Amino acid sequence: MFWKTPLLSVTKTETPLNTPISDLTFTVFDTETTGFAVGAQDRMIEIGAVQVKNKEVQEAETFQMHVNPNRNIPKEITELTGISNETIEHAPTSLEAIQSFIDFNKKTNSAIWVGHYVSFDLLVLKKELQRHQYRIEIPTTIDTLDLIGYLSPSKIMHDLENYASQFGTRIYSRHEALGDALTTAHLFCDLLYHLENRGKYTYADLLDISDLSKRNIQF
Fold it and tell me: Domain segments of the chain: what residues?
């Protein structure tokens, strides 16, 4: 397939492995879609993100954008997310939304992305970009599921709200991209403190716990 020049290069810096986690800036993000078949007929309809600095959620530094999927939104998705065909009628394209998301990352100088079941969100971005014949360099990504698996191997649930409840994390509006990003960000910060109690303080520790080898989505 012919590829155009990469859309934008996300901030790529050589972070020393001994960097304390408290010195890192993270972008916690989430997407909403018309369904799970994002490699076929389903499309992104919203993307949201928030920054984490010094192991604290920066609620003043958020990003949210609806996306026009160029297809009807199923009734059950509207009931779940509150996003209707009217909501996205004049919304930006997925390409415009992803570019704005990358600009948000560059503005805040974040080079690490975090998500809950982040492989799905990365796949959403990949497929949307492929439809426009674009690609980008994806930075290091951290999945909260990997951190939970390290801290509590017996927990096998995938649902964000269940995990947040078990860890005593504040829960925001569910199935809204920004709301889920905020919930994930607070859960991520809670997990970082638990990791610290296990003697995990550095960027290297975080990478060691994160099972990046299984995340083989090539951009």
Answer: 22-214
CATH class of residue range 22-214: alpha beta
CA-closest candidate to residue 8, choices 119, 83, 91, 101: 101
CB-based contact 48:63 (threshold 8 Å): yes
pLDDT at 217 over 80: no
Q: Which residue has the higher pLDDT, 14 or 183?
A: 183
What is the per-residue pLDDT across 72-83, written as a single tens digit (0 to 9) for each? Answer: 999 999 999 999
Q: Is 89 exposed, middle or buried (CB count within 10 Å of its CB: 0-12, 13-18, 19+)? A: exposed
User: If DSSP states are collapsed to H, E and C, what string results for 92-160?
Assistant: CCHHHHHHHHHHHHHHHCCCEEEECCHHHHHHHHHHHHHHCCCCCECCEEEEHHHHHHHHCCCCCCCCH
Encode pLDDT of 67-121 as tens digits.
Answer: 999 999 999 999 999 999 999 999 999 999 999 999 999 888 887 999 999 999 9
**Calpha distance 212→188 (Å, rounded):** 17
- Report whether 59 contacts 182 (CB < 8 A): yes
**pTM for this predicted structure:** 0.89
- Expressed in percent and rounded to 5, the helix, strand and coil fractions of the chain are 40, 20, 40
Q: What is the dihedral of CA 100, 56, 113, 108, to 10 degrees?
A: 40
With beta carbons less than 8 A apart as the criterion, state whether 27 and 105 touch.
Answer: yes
